[in-house]
From TrEMBL:
Protein name: Inducer of phenazine A
Disordered: annotated segments: 180-206
Bias (Pro residues): 194-206
Domain SGNH hydrolase-type esterase, chain residue ranges per copy: 75-330
One Pfam family it belongs to: Lipase_GDSL_2
InterPro entries: SGNH_hydro, SGNH_hydro_sf
Signal sequence annotation: none
Organism: Streptomyces benahoarensis
Domain of life: Bacteria
Transmembrane segments: none
């Protein structure tokens, strides 16, 4: 039987193919990035995996063709990338370039499942491909908060990342294969301390917010220094999450969310992330980020109440709890333009 998800949002079948873990590109420094040279009616990527955007003067991508002159960047994780959009032209960067802020091409600098550390590193490693940058909008936030829930031994100095459990397991196995007894120390030298348990209690929500904001601010400070050198204007936007925007989903969203919970191998969404996806946590997180951004003199926008105010309970905004429909992305692009004065 065909999934309701594919009936209501047929483009998601293409995204599922695109996100096939068996086709993951594992990269130095970044850990992983999108499939390169991907072609479909729904989404297309250039030779390095950046999504192609469409706008007032043709199409463009970071490692592909683009009109001459300066550019603007939309940075972030999968929402910035545009998961859920029916075509490349319906993503946020494309809607900004084609309709709401068309004066300069917008490049899609989104990285699916990326943390703030990976978002920053993606720019650092690829800034040599860019012409002058006039504007940098970072649309992010949820991934850092979700990753803060992972066990302490997976956090490290720079925070956890998605699939880090796979990484640590493989590195431990590699280390074991290379380990040899050291002369003079006997068998005892081969013993290892047991790995910490992965089922340790999740820290309380205020601690998760503190961890997430601390990492975000650390990376935002580097963004600010890089932007100041080039003269680019920098803004930070807390992405709109379905459960932060409104408590009751639209009718189509309710069907999709219920089916996604049944499909999930990990469990029901609220059981997995219930402590961080409540409206109360969204507001507390936004205020902590706002305070941190003000200290760095970086404009901050919490899109959640703005999107809630601009829409009705019947507006179908989401294909899942993090990613938008075409209507949702178009609305967000308009609100970004108005609130950040993007032209």
């Amino acid at each position: 039987m065909k999934l309701r998800r594919y009936a209501l949002t047929p483009q998601m079948e293409q995204y599922d193919d695109f996100d096939d873990r068996g086709e993951t590109r594992y990269l130095p420094y970044l850990m992983y990035y999108h499939r390169s040279g991907y072609r479909s009616e729904v989404l297309n990527t250039d030779r390095l995996g950046f999504r192609v955007g469409h706008g007032a003067r043709g199409h463009a991508s970071v490692a592909g063709e683009r009109p001459p002159g300066p550019v603007k960047l939309l940075v972030g994780s999968s929402t910035a990338f545009g998961i859920g959009a029916t075509t490349d032209a319906a993503t946020l960067s494309s809607r900004l370039w084609s309709r709401y802020a068309p004066s300069t091409p917008w490049l899609n600098f989104g990285g699916r499942s990326y943390s703030s550390a990976q978002e920053l590193l993606l720019f650092v490693l690829h800034q040599h491909l860019l012409p002058p940058v006039e504007e940098i909008v970072i649309l992010s936030g949820f991934n850092n908060l979700a990753l803060a829930r992972l066990p302490e031994h997976q956090q490290g100095e720079h925070g956890a990342f998605f699939f880090c459990g796979d990484y640590h397991a493989q590195m431990d196995a590699l280390q074991t294969r290379h380990r040899k007894a050291k002369p003079g120390f006997g068998r005892r030298a081969q013993r290892r301390s047991p790995a910490p348990p992965d089922d340790a209690p999740v820290p309380p929500t205020p601690e998760l917010i503190r961890r997430s904001v601390e990492l975000t601010v650390r990376h935002l400070e580097t963004w600010r220094k890089l932007a100041s050198v080039t003269g680019a204007r920098l803004s930070y936007v807390l992405q709109p999450l379905a459960t932060w925007v409104r408590q009751e989903p639209a009718p189509q969203e309710a069907v999709l969310f219920k089916e996604l919970d049944k499909m999930s191998r990990l469990g029901i969404f609220e059981d997995l992330f219930g402590d961080i996806v409540t409206p109360e946590t969204g507001r507390a997180y936004a205020e902590a980020l706002r305070t941190a951004c003000e200290k760095q003199d970086v404009p901050f926008l919490d899109l959640n109440p703005v999107l809630a105010e601009a829409t009705t309970p019947e507006d179908w905004l989401y294909v899942d709890r993090a990613h938008c429909t075409d209507h949702g992305y178009d609305t967000v692009a308009r609100l970004l333009t108005d609130c950040l004065d993007l032209r």
